[in-house]
Design a protein that fits this description.
The chain is α+β, with helices and mostly antiparallel strands. 44% of the residues lie in helices and 22% in strands. Residues 92-239 form the Cell envelope-related transcriptional attenuator domain.
């Protein structure tokens, strides 16, 4: 009798244990399958979006690089050619940022190039503001100008307008950024003082982040470049967080409508290695030193030649490349005034 009672108890425990295991495993399996299905959906959606955004440029002398195995660079080009500007092909760049990626230590260096930098524009063979390069010759001339300025290869480009900037941040439910001072700025529709931000760490939506990225009322182009770098880093941080997984579809839709790039989808997957580096990812921001100047009554930002040489050396070391051209610093230096 005791033996029968013992067997019944053992049988009940086994049934209970199976029931517990079932209630634990089934939700886990459901979650896992959901992630797999969502991952497959995102993969297919990303591939479709990137195919629509893919716009290669036939550049003479462009080096062949494998982003999975080699160091590479990407020029991020921000332009105000949104709906209000009717996507004018001759628009000037509002932001230029070169990112270099080092495969060995999974590090990124971000270099902001002030839009008013006084530089040589190849092909046109003139000296003017670097943001004019896009107006004169689109993405191709912009790439050539940056390559000549920094003396490193620009392997890829990503061109986005203000709509993409706003929509991506909104799709991520905002980003956390420190606002250095209180100010008012126009919005994306050029309505004067439509956005007011107060000093301090806070979560910004797309329009607010754009206002922070654009303003230079209380400082200069260099400080604006630093803010743009911080915003980019905040976007990267928010994008790779687990909380943002459910927003990836909206992010891709925002990007696809307002971006062009010569990165193929299979090449873009190389960024996963950097994203999964997590806290081990080392992102350093660099800025081009210089001073304000006026030439023929027009404001320019005159780059400091010695500081520029130092930045070139840092980028070459990070990319592990030799000099991009045979020109000496004096050949590409701005004419003195």
């Amino acid at each position: 009798m005791a033996s029968l009672r013992s067997n019944n108890n053992f049988h009940k425990k086994r049934i209970k244990r199976k029931r517990v295991i079932r209630w634990v495993l089934l939700p886990l399996m459901l979650v896992s399958l959901s992630f797999i299905a969502y991952g497959a959906f995102l993969f297919n959606k990303a591939e479709s979006v990137m195919e629509e955004s893919y716009n290669p440029i036939d550049r003479e002398g462009k080096r062949a690089v494998n982003p999975f195995d080699e160091n590479f660079s990407v020029l991020f080009i921000g332009v105000d050619d949104s709906n209000k500007r009717q996507f004018e092909g001759s628009s000037r760049t509002d932001a230029l940022m070169l990112a270099t990626f080092n495969q060995d230590d999974k590090s990124i260096k971000l270099v902001s190039i002030p839009r008013d930098s006084y530089v040589h524009i190849p092909e046109k063979n003139i000296y003017t503001k670097i943001n004019h390069a896009h107006a004169y010759g689109g993405v191709e001339l912009t790439l050539e100008t940056v390559e000549e300025l920094l003396d490193v290869p620009v392997d890829y480009y990503v061109k986005m307008n203000f709509d993409a900037f706003i929509d991506v941040i909104d799709a991520l439910n905002g980003i956390e950024v420190n606002v250095p001072y209180t100010f008012s700025e126009q919005d994306s529709k050029d309505r004067k003082d439509a956005i007011t931000l107060y000093q301090g760490l806070q979560t910004l939506d797309g329009e607010e982040a754009l206002a922070l990225a654009r303003t230079r009322k209380l400082d200069n182009d260099i400080e604006r470049g630093k803010r743009q770098q911080e915003i980019i880093k905040a976007i990267i941080k928010k994008s790779v967080s687990v909380k943002s997984i459910g927003n990836y579809s909206s992010v891709m839709e925002a990007v696809g409508k307002n971006m062009t790039t010569d990165l193929r989808f299979d090449q873009m997957k190389s960024f996963i290695e950097y994203a999964t580096a997590g806290s081990n990812l080392n992102t350093e921001t660099l800025n081009l030193a210089g001073s304000d100047t006026r030439i023929d009554g027009i404001y320019y930002y005159q780059l400091d030649e010695m500081a520029l040489l130092e930045t070139k050396a840092i980028l070459k070391t990070h990319l592990n490349v030799t000099s991009e051209s045979t020109k000496t610093p004096m050949d590409t230096a701005s004419p003195s005034y």
